[in-house]
């Protein structure tokens, strides 16, 4: 069954690549002697780009991975824009433009729009903003306020590497947080790039009063044991809460859950059984589900990621329907859910309809 699914997927992918290639050729191919040279170069570039995505699933070659990632960005944008260009061609045929002139005009316009969206999406992916939230918790604490810097979905790997990690450290330290939280997807499916690029040493530069705490997400995976993965992450000085609760400074409790795809994860009621809900309780939950359950069990603030806010339009419209809170701040009966769109990205290194971000949460305790 798996082989059949893979073959069908490969067939669909091949048909879509042929559609993109055919459209681009009709719109952009020159006439005259340059046509033959253009054809060979065009076919070579398209073949290398399209095959790199498939080869990237079976090799760890960085060049192949980079080409494949950017091709997927171009592939997505072509599928978004090219049908509109075809419709435009049909409309232009009603004017005095020749058939060839209409195709050229639409093709050049499509190329310009795709290039512009690629640049815009890359800017959104690699230029994080600070989102600020204010939360009031009606429980006593030894401190009046708590400044929390929160980021998730860094997906540290080939394209979200050392520079992106160093930027994260600079941005967080500039906020002067009391506490730093990373609710999952710190790496991109394999710890190898995280280790080989020395990202743990970079993240060790984060400064905060109460330290750095993380939970794991669905992409925090490793070919070895989970403890090996956790150990590699903790080399950066962070504490990974893996279905664990810890009291910080006798002021509040942090609870970190395993990802919901982890078969060994505790249910929230069991995990909260020994937690003093008379103190403020902050929950790190990668995927923003079970908000009502967290409210019922005495959680005050739940921080999550996972959704990427869709990352690419129209994905943001889908996540808005899938989750009660897919991005931003939701308050209900004194319970607060804050979901970030993520600091990194998954797959294509672009964001359209969302932006890379770090959340600054200012918590005020009011007994």
Task: List the SSEs and their pairings.
Elements: H1 2-28, H2 34-55, H3 62-92, H4 99-126, E1 129-137, E2 145-150, H5 162-175, E3 179-183, H6 192-196, H7 199-203, E4 212-215, H8 226-234, E5 239-240, E6 244-248, E7 252-256, H9 268-271, E8 281-284, H10 291-296, E9 301-304, H11 315-322, E10 328-332, E11 335-339, E12 357-365
Parallel strand pairs: 1-12, 2-3, 3-4, 4-5, 7-8, 8-9, 9-11
Antiparallel strand pairs: 2-12, 6-7, 10-11
Top keywords for this entry?
alpha/beta, 6-stranded mixed sheet, 17% strand, 11 helices, 43% helix, 367 residues
Description of the molecule:
With 367 residues, this protein is of the alpha/beta class. Helix content is 43%, strand content 17%. Helix 1 crosses helix 3, helix 2 (34-55) crosses helix 3 and helix 3 (62-92) packs across helix 4. Strand 8 (281-284), helix 10 (291-296) and strand 9 form a beta-alpha-beta unit.
Summarize the structure.
The protein is an alpha/beta fold.
N-end to C-end Cα span: 58 Å
Shape descriptor: elongated
Q: What letter string, H or E per element, gives the SSE order?
A: HHHHEEHEHHEHEEEHEHEHEEE
Tally of individual helices = 11
Stretches where pLDDT is under 50 for at least 5 consecutive residues are none
Quaternary structure type: single chain
Number of strands: 12
């Amino acid at each position: 069954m798996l082989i059949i699914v893979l073959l069908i997927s490969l067939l669909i992918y091949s048909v879509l690549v042929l559609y993109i290639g055919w459209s681009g050729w009709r719109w952009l191919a020159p006439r005259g002697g340059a046509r033959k040279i253009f054809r060979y170069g065009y076919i070579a570039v398209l073949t290398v780009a399209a095959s790199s995505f498939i080869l990237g699933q079976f090799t760890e070659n960085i060049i192949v991975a980079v080409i494949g990632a950017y091709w997927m960005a171009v592939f997505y944008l072509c599928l978004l824009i090219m049908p509109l260009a075809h419709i435009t061609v049909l409309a232009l045929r009603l004017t005095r433009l020749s058939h060839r002139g209409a195709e050229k005009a639409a093709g050049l316009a499509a190329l310009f729009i795709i290039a512009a969206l690629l640049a815009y999406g890359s800017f959104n992916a690699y230029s994080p903003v600070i989102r600020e939230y204010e939360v009031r918790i009606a429980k006593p604490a030894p401190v009046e306020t708590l400044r929390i810097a929160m980021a998730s979905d860094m997906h540290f790997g080939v394209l979200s590497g050392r520079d992106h990690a160093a930027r994260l450290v600079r941005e967080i330290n500039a906020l002067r947080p009391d506490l730093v939280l990373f609710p999952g997807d710190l790496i991109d499916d394999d710890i190898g790039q995280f280790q080989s690029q020395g990202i743990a040493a970079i993240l060790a530069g984060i400064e905060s009063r109460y330290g750095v705490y993380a939970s794991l997400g669905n992409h925090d995976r490793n070919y070895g044991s989970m403890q090996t993965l956790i150990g590699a992450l903790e080399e950066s000085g962070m504490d990974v809460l893996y279905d664990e609760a810890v009291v910080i400074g006798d002021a509040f409790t942090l609870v970190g859950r395993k990802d919901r795809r982890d078969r060994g994860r505790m249910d929230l009621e069991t995990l909260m059984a020994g937690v003093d809900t008379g103190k403020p309780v902050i929950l790190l939950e990668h995927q923003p589900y079970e908000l009502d359950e967290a409210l019922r069990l005495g959680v005050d603030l739940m921080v999550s990621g996972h959704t990427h806010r869709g990352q690419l339009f129209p994905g943001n419209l889908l996540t808005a329907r899938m989750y009660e809170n897919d991005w931003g701040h939701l308050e209900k009966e004194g319970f607060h859910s804050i979901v970030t769109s993520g600091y990194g990205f998954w797959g294509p290194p672009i964001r359209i309809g969302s932006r890379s971000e770090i959340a600054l949460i200012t918590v005020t305790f009011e007994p």
